[in-house]
Design a protein that fits this description.
Order of helices and strands of chain A: HHEHEHEHEHEHEEEHEHHHHH
Helix content of chain A: 40-55%
Number of helices of chain B: 18
Number of strands of chain A: 9
Order of helices and strands of chain B: HHHHHHEEHHHHHHEHEEHHEHEHEH
Oligomer: heterodimer
Helix content of chain B: 40-55%
Distance between the termini of chain A: 55 Å
Largest sheet of chain B: 6 strands, mixed
Number of strands of chain B: 8
Number of domains of chain A: 2
Strand order of the largest sheet of chain B: 5-4-3-6-7-8
Distance between the termini of chain B: 51 Å
CATH superfamily of the largest domain in chain A: P-loop containing nucleotide triphosphate hydrolases
CATH architecture of the largest domain in chain A: 3-Layer(aba) Sandwich
Largest interface: A-B, 64 and 55 residues
Radius of gyration of chain B: 29 Å
Number of domains of chain B: 4
CATH class of the largest domain in chain B: Alpha Beta
Chain lengths: 281, 471
């Protein structure tokens, strides 16, 4: 058992500075209780990867991370035979054909590592949407049965089911089959109230009132039609910036001067400046 | 799982499917399994457990929430006939069921002022607080009852919002929150207040639905309470609000479509040798590289020419597709766009990289020379286009025409279009009208479709399906 109840999830995640709302707490709890993978989807910088790290930290489990990218294949996600070593072995001993497909020559990649692990493991499959569609097929077997088939060695079944978190920025729609096997958690931008608490948890030195102003200002920015809305990570950066500059007020001048911390497109900056009436630097 | 709970669960899943959420049998089972491990008395946990197991797309969430509120209403003491327990000084003079009130009866001015004070106070606070919803419920109880035919009654949100008119509180709230008006603080405060007002309106609407469901059965109200997800909304019927929501979706959508376009790029049969994978593959043949492995090919980056009907009848559609095309710009080496009504003009310059999309659309409407008499004339447009911009189309060009093919009974200039389409590498026509309406009235859809393949493109889902087919 990973967690006993959603409330416990909330407490233990809060202990490692991750503030969970009802949705997060319930799905994190269910993923553990039902033994199903958790798919966290949402815009960049809302704490999807951080969630997996927080779960690992809160439960004292080992974190195994598979970063997805275009062109990721079985050899780099699952396992690979150490062919150089195999070649050397064959050259050294012509009779060695039988031995070269054994543990000794197996290179473990993150998925296999998580499956074979004896200790509690959190498997983070990051940015699943970046990988090719074929990788999803590979994940299906692993995520539904927690087993891997290696032709030369046979089927390896997990002795201890890892806690699996998949993240996706929704740049493409993941396949129906994959979604069906996962619990789904949409992480969106938080309410100003929650964002204030997150900022305060990350930057405790910030005065409460300034954090409140900051969260509300960011919420207003997100209300504009921008190319890229500010993420939570950027709000936290903004808070750190203000602290470093020694500002205790968030007025037009300060916002105008530091807007680049949260808005990274020129058109977004001019739009925000126009709508909020900021001085342009 | 107890039997009544199971029945409710099954009915709820059925209602979700009815509302268009694709809930598979396996997902329904997952949800049932989740119910056995959570504390069922925690309503929000129950809601999130259902959402995690059955709602796998964010755009389905609003519909899910509306239905969840109907099937699993909050436990309240104020049923239809009981009296409101919240609201403090807001106790109505009389709420006895036998004593019908006039619809939306304003109540005594002093009492109403008290209620509005309370609302103003709540609007500056946290809308997730329990007293916020409780107040909404008691206000529906107080103002939302409207007598219907016979000895019956019905519930509406309109009289509640009219009596309290939260919109008129904005000025007062701003004065209370700010020392002086203007600048960023006012924008921020406005944003907060209008968000909370929206939350109040939703809370009222949700409670009204609950009361109707209690009195006349859930099924009756369920259908009416779920709006179709945004990607199923008809382009030609978009409200202003939905268009704004779609605009917000443009960039994520463009990114999604772009990845779909490049996802096609698989490991090819031509290209440079992939040394690592070749050696790896040679192992199965004893170190002899029998089958070479190759690196994927570079993606094909086509040039794109867009001809876009900008007349009023398809405004929302062309507006959206234009934005999308320019968001897709990175995928193409060259994009040129032309808009027309009965004259045609190039609008590429308005959409330079980094331009603000809203400004671009406004400038296009003001500056581009696309209107002569204001009645769409496809024939004339194609002829003029071939004369003035014929060189825009070459063997590497994909030509995309967006419009409803309604030409006000003018000559269609089919030969000119055939010529244009012949020179392009591909040509496609996207028509925002439903297929059954093609060829009715002044539409010459089929005639054009004989030359350029025409696709029905009424909503984002169909647009995505079209891009999927593209090659």
């Amino acid at each position: 058992m990973w967690f006993a109840s959603p409330d416990e999830v909330r407490e233990r995640l809060a202990a490692v500075d991750y503030l969970a709302d009802d949705g997060i707490a319930t799905s994190v709890f269910l993923a553990g209780a039902l033994g199903k993978p958790l798919l966290a989807e949402g815009p960049a910088g809302v704490g999807k990867t951080q969630l997996a790290k927080a779960v690992a930290l809160a439960t004292g489990a080992r974190l195994v991370r598979l970063q997805c990218y275009e062109g990721l294949d079985e050899a780099r996600a699952l396992y690979e035979w150490n062919y150089k070593k195999q070649l050397l072995r064959i050259q050294a001993d012509g009779e060695a054909w039988e031995d070269i497909f054994s543990e000794e020559f197996l290179l473990e990649r993150p998925l296999l590592k998580a499956i074979r692990s004896d200790e509690p493991t959190v498997l983070l499959i990051d940015e699943t949407d970046k990988a090719d569609v074929e990788v999803e097929g590979l994940l299906l077997e692993i995520l539904s049965d927690y087993q891997v088939t290696i032709p030369e060695l046979g089927t390896i079944t997990a002795t201890r089911r890892p806690y699996v978190v998949l993240t996706s920025n929704a740049t493409r729609e993941l396949s129906e089959a994959l979604k069906r096997r996962c619990l789904y958690l949409h992480l969106g931008y938080p309410t100003p109230e929650r964002e204030r608490d997150i900022v305060l948890a990350q930057v405790p030195e910030l005065p409460d009132r300034l954090a409140e102003r900051l969260a509300r200002t960011v919420a207003t920015l997100r209300g504009l039609e921008l190319k890229k809305s500010p993420s939570i990570a950027e709000t936290v950066d903004w808070a750190r910036t203000l602290l470093a500059l020694g500002r205790t007020e968030l007025d037009e001048g300060v916002i105008g001067a530091t807007l680049g911390v949260v808005l990274k497109h020129d058109s977004d900056q001019s739009r925000a400046a126009k709508e909020l009436g900021l001085p342009r630097p | 799982m107890s039997e009544p709970l199971l029945d409710r669960h099954v009915a709820f899943v059925a209602a979700l499917r009815e509302a268009g959420l694709p809930v598979s049998v396996a997902e329904g089972l997952d949800a049932a399994r989740a119910l056995t491990v959570i504390d069922l008395t925690e309503r929000e946990t129950l809601r999130e457990a259902y959402a995690a197991t059955m709602v796998k797309r964010p755009r389905h969430r609003p519909g899910f929430d509306a239905l969840f509120d109907l099937w699993f209403p909050p436990v309240t003491s104020d049923g239809p006939a009981a009296s409101a327990s919240e609201g403090g000084a807001a106790r109505p003079v009389s709420t006895l069921p036998g004593e019908p009130r006039e619809p939306g009866e304003p109540g005594r001015p002093a009492e109403l002022a008290g209620l509005r004070d309370r609302l103003a106070e709540l609007l500056t606070g946290d809308p997730d607080a329990p007293e916020f919803r409780a107040f909404a419920r008691s206000m529906v109880e107080r103002f939302g009852r409207v007598p219907a035919a016979g000895n019956r009654q019905s519930w509406f949100s309109y009289p509640v919002l009219r009596a309290l008119s939260p919109q008129t509180l904005i000025a007062r709230l701003l004065d209370a929150m700010l020392a002086e008006r203007g600048g960023v603080p006012e924008q921020v405060a406005r944003h907060q207040i209008s968000r909370n007002i929206r939350r109040f309106e939703e809370a009222v609407a949700s409670d009204v639905r609950r009361r109707i469901a209690e009195e006349s059965g859930i099924e009756k109200i369920a259908k009416a309470s779920v709006a179709p997800p945004i990607d199923r909304v008809d382009f030609l019927r978009l409200t202003k609000d939905e268009l704004a929501r779609l605009r917000r979706e443009v960039h994520p959508l463009a990114r999604r479509l772009a990845t779909r376009l490049t996802a096609r790029r698989k490991r090819g049969h031509r290209g440079r040798l992939d040394f690592r994978r070749t050696v790896r593959a040679s192992l199965s043949t004893g170190g002899v590289p029998l089958s070479p492995r190759l690196r994927p090919r570079r993606p094909h980056r086509p040039e794109l020419v867009i001809l876009c009907d900008a007349s009023g009848s398809v405004a929302a559609f062309s507006h959206f597709t234009l934005l999308l095309t320019f968001a897709l710009r990175e995928q193409f080496t060259k994009v040129r766009a032309f808009a027309f009504v009965d004259a045609v003009d190039e609008i590429t310059a308005f959409f330079r990289p980094g331009a603000d999309v809203l400004d671009a659309v406004t400038r296009m409407a003001e500056e581009a020379d696309i209107v002569r008499f204001g009645r769409t004339d496809y024939g004339r447009v194609f002829t003029r286009f071939a004369e003035r911009y014929g060189d825009a189309i070459g063997p590497r060009t994909s030509l995309l025409i967006l419009g409803d093919a309604r030409s006000n009974y003018q000559a269609p200039a089919l030969d000119t279009l055939r010529l244009l389409a012949g020179e392009a590498r591909h040509a496609y026509w996207l028509n925002p009208e439903p297929r059954p309406q093609w060829d009715t009235g002044d539409s010459v859809a089929t005639a054009y479709a004989g030359i350029v393949p025409m696709y029905e493109c009424r909503n984002v889902a169909q647009l995505a399906a079209f891009v999927e087919e593209l090659d």
